Amino acid sequence: LCAILLCCGPMLTCCRRVTIFPAVVTLPEGDKATFFCNISMENDSGSEYSLNWYKETNHSQNQKTAEISRYKPMTETEKYRLINHTAFFEIEILNLHQNDSGSYYCGLITFFEPDKVMESNRSQLIVTAAPQMNATDEPEMEEGNPSEHVKAMLLGILLLAGVAVLLIFGYLISMYRRGDVQKPLSENMPAEEKPSVVSISTVDYGVLEFQRDQHSPVPPKAWPVEQTEYATIIFPEEKPLTPER
Questions:
Q1: Residue 50 pLDDT greater than 60, yes or no
Q2: d(Cα 9, Cα 73) in Å, to the nearest integer?
């Protein structure tokens, strides 16, 4: 079996081919770059292999940054994330910085030739400086979602409208009450509560003194005993006064 694998291994290896795309990616700092490595496996015997992710610097030094095996679904580091989709591998470079710019490629290492790396073509990553937002620039509104600024404006308008309605209502009430105070008391009082004129017949008693004629003096002894007479005076019945209509 070992002899067969040693003889057939190079042949199976030659049937594999590694490609990477897209060829050029340009993104600003802080973004995420995504590449795809495709491995053609014609006459695949199910042999084990692993995929390495390299960064090429100065066209001479190759730096291995991540690795994933054939049957591992995903591997992730602080900077890289490799996802196995069976037919291809997805490589993500997270939180881009300008020093991440460079040339990247995939390397396939098979079970038969662990010391030999089958390299893919190169992809270029260009990381630009993050765009600076001016103080006068306003953030763009997301489609379908109103911004917090619009929500705050609508809430303020509703509050102002409510305050205005309350002020108008209070003013009308105060004017209505002021008009009632200025009216005469007789107009404000209901008809049934107006004081009615009651006619009461009264009898008053008085003392009337009658003086005799002073021109005919009479001796004191001949004066008769003074007498007091009483008289009854009946006043006519008062009629109730009715307001003029």
A1: yes
A2: 25
